[in-house]
Amino acid sequence: MNIEASAPGKCILFGEHAVVFGQPAVAVAIEQRIHVSIQPIEGEDWTLEGTKLNPRKHPHLKMLRRLLWPRKDGAPALSIEIHGDIPRASGLGSSAALSVAASAALRAARGRWVIESEQGRVWAEGYSSEIEDTDAYTGENSGIRADIYAKKERQLLGNEALDLDECSMIGHSVEASAQGGRASPMDASTCAHGGVILLSDQIESDNDYLYQRQLEMSDGMRTWELHDLGVPKGGEEVYLVIGNTGVHAPTADQVAKVAKAIQDEPERMKEIETIGLIARRGIEALKNGDYEAVGRAMTENQVMLRGLGVSCHELDDLVRAAAPSSLGAKLTGAGGGGCMVALTRNPEMTSEAIKNAGGKALISKFGNQGMRLETPDCEPFWSPQSSSS
Ligand code: MEV
Q: How many whole angstroms from its chain centre is CA 146?
């Protein structure tokens, strides 16, 4: 008996790096996905692809285990299998997709105990932007609300146990810990919800508002308001073509590099603010279905990212190659290597141009399904016996 969940990768249309400072940004879920499958096994040690898991090499899984599957509460060891078609460490959100899919699989594997009260359903366990007494950023109590857990009545199973807010919050906390405490919730929320996700410093519209996320960073508190734009009008007529340079550049290093540049020269915050202004223009264009203007904003965003020092000649070459056949092109993710993305009405032509310039190309339609439980009829493997956590 195994439990499997999957989540898509993401591309950023505007605002990477600046979003870490609280500026607006937009990301789109891509067709490529990661699947995580788990199964209980005998013994103490977890396995990954059949070999003993080394938690130091897999900090994401270590943190997920602490948040959802603590051994101190008697959780059994698990065997984990991961597969999918999102290139790793390439700016396409593979680590966020992994965290989101794994958190969904783990939640399904323990179910969720609730009580039904006159005011509605109350969670006895779990992480939510609407619950203050559980904290996915520290995970100190494995998400258990001891007083309610003691009265637990009903266990939610399968899809009913899952919650996108929870998976994305856990994903964000895991990303933040892997990125030295500096991460926006953009990747995790896009991989969880799918479609097109907008982050802003203000609530843009009540219709598509999701929740607020906050994170204390070394240089102050950040607050993001997240929105789900679904697939904006005209989105069926455009494609994303992703060009992979094959150069690996860890996100944490690029994020730290930008933080240091701003710390050394605080006046460079203007560049971050300019990216925010470009993103805001791009967001208006997106809402109006004006993809020519969306593309222009992407290309302007690339100029700013180059100025910040997070592009590289391999990325610049692919962006230049994609430009003639696309509406706009830029690096996507943390940069320094990894991938670029072009918005285009001619995906085959743009893809050929990227390949001719030495990149690997992937085509994705615009906006895709978010996290999904692939084994909806599954039964939990384990749930904490008491409220002692
Ligand atoms: C990484 O996909 C995007 C960055 O803006 C980092 C983040 O948002 O946490 C570079």
A: 30
Helix (H, G, I), strand (E, B) or coil at 251: helix
Question: Which atom of ligand 1 lies at the shortest distance from residue 18's CA?
Answer: 5
CA of 359 to the centre of ligand 1 (A): 22
* Location of structure tokens 């998400």: 143
pTM over 0.90: yes
Amino acid (one-letter) located at 243: G
Output the CA 136–ligand 1 centroid distance in Å. Answer: 19
Cα 6 to ligand 1 centroid, rounded to whole Å: 21
Q: Ligand 1 atom 10: the closest Cα is on which residue?
A: 334
Q: pLDDT class for 253, splitting at 50, 70, 90?
A: very high
Instruction: Report whether 108 contacts 375 (CB < 8 A).
Output: yes
Consecutive H or E run containing 155: strand 154-156
> Residues lining ligand 1, CB < 6 A?
16-17, 19-20, 91, 183-184, 186-187, 251, 255, 333-334
How far does the centroid of ligand 1 lie from the alpha carbon of residue 383, in Å?
34
Which of 320, 368, 326, 362 is CA-nearest to residue 344? 326
From its phi and psi, is residue 358 left (phi > 0), alpha (psi between -120 and 50) or beta? left
The atom of ligand 1 lying closest to the CA of 91 is: 2
Within 13 Å, how many C-alpha atoms sit on residue 250's CB side?
A: 7
CA–chain centroid gap for 330, Å, is 19
- pLDDT tens across 301-314, in order? 999 999 999 999 99
Q: What are phi and psi of 206, to 5 degrees?
A: -65, -25
Q: Could you give the CA distance from residue 31 to residue 51 in angstroms, rounded to a whole number?
A: 29
Query: 57: burial class by Cβ within 10 Å (0-12, 13-18, 19+)?
Result: exposed
Say what percent of the chain tops pLDDT 90: 87
